[in-house]
Write a structure and sequence with these properties.
The protein is α+β, with helices and mostly antiparallel strands. Helices cover 32% and strands 36% of the residues. α1 runs antiparallel to α2.
Length: 158
């Protein structure tokens, strides 16, 4: 049984291990991921980066990090959603996404945005969002670098 709950300080090393084993992320991306995790752990009263963790028993399976987009009413950014590579394709990501949608709805949120890359190694990520009823809202060509566009997915919540 999978439980999704707020991050705890004891989750840090397991989450770092998961990030390190995720092949798509560069070292810089992994460092940023850890900065957001640390921000959520150090100050659990801050509201910019909400981190929730999926676990089963004592095993951490993945997490997401979400936050309200500045200067908007009810728009949230999905900064990270990561599943242990050994558990990829088992539905944990979809459960994390449903939990994020429920969280955003509970805060009277109306839209979740998720930004990703157009690179080939992000095909599964883009397929994941489509499968979970997220629409491709925009593409900004050559955003990250030449031949690596920003793809923005979104889902309006009822």
């Amino acid at each position: 049984m999978i439980i999704i709950r707020d991050i705890e300080i004891g989750n840090r090393s397991a989450l770092e291990n998961i990030l390190q084993r995720t092949q798509n992320f560069s070292e810089e991306e992994k460092n940023i991921g850890m900065e957001l995790i640390d921000s959520a752990i150090i100050d659990n009263n801050q509201k910019e980066y909400i981190v929730r963790v999926a676990s089963s028993g004592n095993q951490v399976l993945g997490y997401y990090c979400i936050g309200q987009r500045a200067l908007t009413e009810g728009v949230y950014d999905m900064y990270w959603i990561v599943v242990d590579p050994e558990k990829s394709g088992t539905g944990i990501g979809a459960e994390l996404l449903r939990d994020a949608e429920s969280f955003v709805s509970s805060k009277n949120g109306r839209l979740i945005l998720a930004e990703t890359s157009s690179r080939k190694d992000y095909d599964l990520t883009r397929r994941f969002y489509r499968k979970n009823n997220y629409s491709e809202l925009a593409v900004i060509k050559d955003f990250y670098r030449e031949s690596d566009s920003l793809v923005i997915f979104g889902k309006y919540l009822n």
